[in-house]
Specification:
This protein has 13 helices and twelve strands. The longest helix has 24 residues. The chain binds pyridoxal-5'-phosphate. The site of pyridoxal-5'-phosphate (PLP) has 13 residues, from helix 4.
């Protein structure tokens, strides 16, 4: 007799990450491959991270500080909150999982956008949520649409700003409006993985101030994108200490490694590194906008480090054809967007290589 498992798993597919460079080289016999598929940092990471990692290596016979005390203190100081309002995790991926396990019951109403970070879907479904999915409006979150499905019974709302994979954002006043609409008994998870890249004047750079008024909001951040340490797996969430205390009950005791804690402390201090990254992102974004326009391709304006565009041909075919040319990007997914793909903004050289390859495959 087959071993029994939770029926919720039947509708969940495994997460498909961007294809690794080495796999593509091996499978296709290519020497040079560029990966613009996972919104990683094309310039690596702050040099201070290397030093911190080398130093921490000497201590890996010890368990890490399970409370990440020094890291919490550093994050708290940087963002003007108290350390009990900070919870570091193994990437914000781990936090998405922990939030779902902590706050969603079988049948809980949960609301999310149609084209957004896919882990909101799988973790909510894993917990047996009654998931309401709000269609996009012009490739962006339709917050009026969210208001039509959110009720006082809603347990949790997932918001991603700027959004992955569309790069779209919603404004500070829209954020105020939706927070005012949502019951204080509903948890709002506000994921700002791409916060650092957003330059639009209406983007809510002061999102952490919202926490003073809305204790039902958790702000998720990551060092995987602008700070460039995706491989070390570190994200952190800022919000009400009582909510974080609930999540902390089920957190793995040593979820952030000793090396990662040291690296994160170094990365978060290097504001100069960040300036260069944002500059490059802006240049790359405008280069790609121009090129898409010249090619007559529709694209979505972005506040993140990736751009969604409509290749007007099957996204899966474009993906494989680009792969053969050594360029890894990815389809954005979703029934209605079968010809749309997402490209991460790379170095200028990578952006140019991508455009050259795209022209060839189209
Ligand atoms: C919107 C969003 N949230 C969370 C994550 C997970 O990031 P991390 O590397 O911190 O787990 C990603 C990664 O792509 C993302 O795009």
């Amino acid at each position: 007799m087959a071993v029994r498992y939770r029926k919720e798993l039947d509708i969940i597919s495994p997460y498909v990450p961007g294809k690794p460079i080495d796999d593509v080289k091996r499978e296709l016999g290519l020497e040079r491959v560029i990966k613009l598929a996972s919104n990683e940092n094309p310039f690596g990471f702050s040099s201070s991270v290397r030093e911190a990692v080398m130093k921490a290596l000497d201590e890996v016979n010890l368990y890490p500080d399970g409370n990440a005390t020094l890291l919490k203190a550093k994050i708290a100081e940087k963002y003007g909150v108290t350390p009990d309002m900070v919870l570091p995790t193994c990437g914000s991926d781990e936090m998405v999982d922990l939030i779902a396990k902590t706050f969603i019951d079988q049948g809980s109403e949960v609301v999310m956008a149609e084209v957004t970070f896919p882990r909101y879907f799988s973790t909510s479904m894993m917990m047996g949520a009654d998931l309401k999915i709000v269609p996009m409006k012009n490739m962006a979150y339709d917050l009026e649409g969210f208001k039509r499905v959110i009720t006082p019974e809603t347990r949790l709302v997932w918001l991603c700003n700027p959004n992955n994979p569309t790069g779209s954002f919603f404004s500070r006043s829209e954020l105020v409006d939706i927070m005012e609409f949502i019951s204080p008994e509903t948890l709002v998870v506000y994921d700002e993985a791409y916060y650092e890249f957003a330059t639009h004047p209406d983007y809510p750079k002061d999102s952490l101030d919202f926490l003073k008024k809305y204790q039902n909001m958790l702000v998720m951040k990551t060092l995987s994108k602008a700070y460039g340490i995706a491989g070390l797996r570190i994200g952190f969430t800022i919000g009400d200490a009582t909510l974080l205390g609930l999540i902390n009950r089920i957190r793995n005791p040593f979820n952030v490694t000793l090396i990662t804690q040291a690296a994160a402390m170094a990365a978060i201090d290097d504001d100069e590194f960040l300036v260069k990254i944002i500059e490059n992102n802006n240049k790359g974004k405008h280069y790609l906008y121009d090129e898409f326009e010249k090619m007559g391709l529709e694209y979505a304006k972005t506040e993140a480090n990736h751009i969604a565009f409509n290749a007007r041909k099957d996204a899966g075919v474009i993906f494989s054809d680009l792969l053969k040319k050594g360029v890894i990007i990815r389809p954005i997914g979703g029934e209605k967007y079968k010809t749309w793909l997402r490209v991460s903004i790379g170095t200028m050289e990578e952006n140019q290589e991508f455009i050259k390859a795209l022209k060839e495959v189209l």
